[in-house]
Amino acid sequence: MDLRQLLGEATEYDKKQAVEMKKPKSWLKSVSAFANTVGGVLVFGITDDDEVVGIDDIKVASEYVSQKIKERISPFPNAVLRVQSVDDKEVLTVYVPEGSETPYYYSAEGVTEAYIRIGNESVLADATEQKRLILRGRGTSYDTLMSPYNYDDYAFSKLRERYKSWTGNSMTEKMMDSFGIRNSDGQLTNAGALLADDGPVRHSRLFCTRWNGLDKSGGGVDALDSAEFSGSLIILLNEGLSFVKRNMRTMWKKTADSRIEMPDYCERSVLESLVNALIHRDYLVTGSEVHIDIYDNRLTIFSPGGMPDGTLVQDWNITDIPSIRRNPVLADIFNRLGYMERKGSGLEKICLAYENAANYTPELAPTFFSNRSSFIVTLWNLNYQAIQNGEFDESLFEEQDGGQTGEQDRSQDEGQAGRQAGRQAGRQAEGYNNNITKLLEYCSVPRTRTEMQQFLGMSSRSTFQKLYLSVLLESGSLKRTLPDKISSPNQKYIKS
Predict the structure, then answer these.
(1) Alpha-carbon distance 96 to 40, whole Å?
(2) What is the pTM for the complete model shown?
(3) 54: region left, alpha or beta (phi > 0 left; psi from -120 to 50 alpha)
């Protein structure tokens, strides 16, 4: 029997060589964490290297583990203990399902703590995490809770306008109750407060920035455009989309009888990403807001709060992600307003819109990243690489201020050759600088020299060494992971 058979369908697990009887907290915190997140398995009798060492007195060990779980984990999780034989040795497995009465606390020696899983570790839940667990244990969500605001003190013109334009019908007062905007006493829910025109939820804001370059240190001018928006989520959505549109360009190419437009970013993907950020963000996090950051080669949308179930989006196949809504009332309202669907297919639509773009290539596929505290969507500029490679010039971008006269066109043609030569020289220097920036981003985690060289698509080791690796090491931008063993075959490099 291998480890996979011991774990069954569980994706989270901890291995323990022995049952620590003097330090039971070392493994009881995993029981708390499993119950508070997506469940998991605790395996006693296996080392970190997957060597089966077994448990000497399995009966005593089983009774001790069962007793300590009952004594120190509250409420008691529905843990199942099993003794199994592996390589003629007995191991103990403790199956802990995802709990429905969160938080599950570890209590002993005057300490009461709740744990959660982050990656492959069981860590102490902070105050915000505990609030999440309490809401989950009560079977409720942030948007359903009552706010301190009264319905009569706020207007909902943006909500009414959108409902009218989408359905053709006017929104009645009765619908404010059925939508979950207010209760029978006229008190706003948190969902209602977030949708009021002058939204009183201070941390529900949107920050937008068009940065100068590939990162936030753009040289003399850091930002080319920036804005901060507050108010109803509908206002934030509309203003965010407008900001992106005014900071992106549309390239085009002629066909036999028409032309194909090729925008920097797919508007449908931007819409889906921003809706996802506003509706599924964690509003329990009060020190952070949704951000749209536009760089030369990409657009990122940051939202406070990771996946609702605690998993990591990058570990999932996008088509297999379960539909779990952190704010079900807001999600339902946005569905009724035509902004999203109930079946939770937003991430798929983001990718599909890109795949259908005329200037799409597989390496430009949208990327998704999450941890426990954030969710980030990255949309790549579909025209950036073509411009860097000199495949298009600026004349192929659609002018925002209309056409020009024939005299202006002739004047531009006379200077075109000189400008083209200047652009080519500029692109060579800019292309090298962009490669430097991309390589440093790639080395945010340790990389081998071969990985770095392949990332830039370079075949010559000596050229890569001379133009990139030596330069970055000498400038201190990169550092070796094994500085005392420069020639080690295990040598890797990481961004300083």
Answers:
(1) 5
(2) 0.72
(3) left
Q: Other C-beta atoms within 10 Å of 313: how many? A: 18
What is the CB-side half-sphere exposure of residue 128 using CA atoms within 13 A? Answer: 12
Query: What are residue 464's phi and psi, to 5 degrees?
Result: -60, -45
Give the single-character DSSP code of 170.
Answer: P
For residues 83 and 46, is the Cβ–Cβ distance under 8 A? no
CB 31 within 8 A of CB 99: no
Report helix, strand or coil for 22.
coil
Extended beta strands in 12-133, E state = 13-16, 40-44, 73-74, 80-86, 89-96, 105-108, 111-118, 121-124
- CB-CB contact of 93 with 41 (8 Å): yes
Tens of pLDDT along 349-406? Answer: 999 999 999 999 999 999 999 988 899 999 999 999 888 877 665 545 553 333 333 3
Residue type at position 12:
E
CA-closest candidate to residue 57, choices 18, 10, 25, 105: 18
